[in-house]
Design brief:
single chain; 249 residues; alpha/beta; seven-stranded parallel β-sheet; 7 strands; 49% helix; binds NADP nicotinamide-adenine-dinucleotide phosphate
């Protein structure tokens, strides 16, 4: 129960990594406000699941790329739960293509959903965390933000931008006991990767030092560490949750 009594916002939790973070936070005693953009049915099902065993959770439809949505979200969460101790900026999309073919719209959308979203929500919770003189903000980046990747100029730029943002927030707000860290997941196996060609996926696993893809729980457990008082002296850092992938390249 590392998060007992803490109130968390997790963005983009209707499936994948965000869903696992929401589940793990509930197991650790947190109250969870989670968001989604369009997957209403999955969000309702998750809310039902999270509250089934006396957990406290609520899903909010909120577009992470929109500044006013973030402001409204925090207002609603404060009305529902009173404060916000933890923010996980997890919502993210890809729209891959070579730079030669990438449209302005493809660039803007990916940068807005992945990177501007971190600004939007961090800005919106700031006053609450400053008043409390405590808070943990966790931004989900990617190894692609650390290393770059062919066909992902928009995605890697957005994820690298998150790393700079994380360090600046840590430097600005450390004196107020507000911590900000990033997680850079490697290849994480989700519902989405189940649909990919099995041989291709095995090929990816083989290149990873730990010889497996990561699970959403691997990322969620790292979030628990960064959200909890276990990491009270850790800020401005990026933890690569990648099975050694980055070390190997
Ligand atoms: P996913 O399965 O595609 O789930 C994305 C989640 O984000 C969904 O719940 C989606 O909800 C939500 N979302 C998308 N756009 C949104 C918006 N504008 N506003 C609010 N919510 C929005 O993705 P994932 O694989 O779990 O990835 C989660 C995060 O980890 C992302 O930031 C991703 O870049 C990062 N990451 C993933 C991997 C990996 O291997 N999976 C590796 C490195 C980093 P709706 O369906 O309702 O839109």
């Amino acid at each position: 129960m590392l998060l007992q009594g803490k109130i968390a916002i997790v963005t983009g939790a209707s499936r994948g990594i965000g869903k696992s973070i929401a589940r793990t936070f509930i197991e650790q005693g947190a109250t969870v406000a989670f968001t989604y953009r369009s997957s209403e049915e999955q969000a309702l099902a998750l809310e039902k699941e999270l509250t089934a065993n006396n957990g406290t959770a609520k899903g909010f439809k909120s577009d992470a790329s929109k500044y006013t949505d973030a402001e409204n979200l925090v207002k609603e969460v404060l009305e529902a739960f009173g404060t916000v101790d933890i923010v996980v900026n997890n919502a993210g999309i890809t729209d891959d293509t070579l730079l030669m073919r990438m449209s302005e719209e493809q660039w803007d959308r990916v940068v807005d959903v992945n990177m501007k979203s971190c600004f939007n929500l961090t800005k919106a919770v700031l006053r609450t965390m400053l008043k409390a003189r405590s808070g943990s903000i966790i931004n989900i980046s990617s190894v692609v933000g650390v290393q770059g990747n062919v066909g992902q100029a928009n995605y890697s730029a957005s994820k690298a931008g998150i790393l700079g943002f994380t360090k600046s927030v840590a430097l600005e707000l450390g004196s107020r006991n507000i911590r900000c860290n990033a997680i850079a997941p490697g290849f994480i196996e989700t519902e989405m990767t189940e649909k990919l060609d099995a041989e291709v996926v095995q090929g990816w696993r083989d290149t990873i030092p730990l010889k497996r893809g990561g699970s959403p729980e691997d990322v969620a457990n790292t979030c628990v560490f960064l959200a909890s008082d276990m990491s009270s002296y850790v800020t401005g850092q990026t933890i690569n949750v990648c099975g050694g992938m980055i070390t190997a390249s």
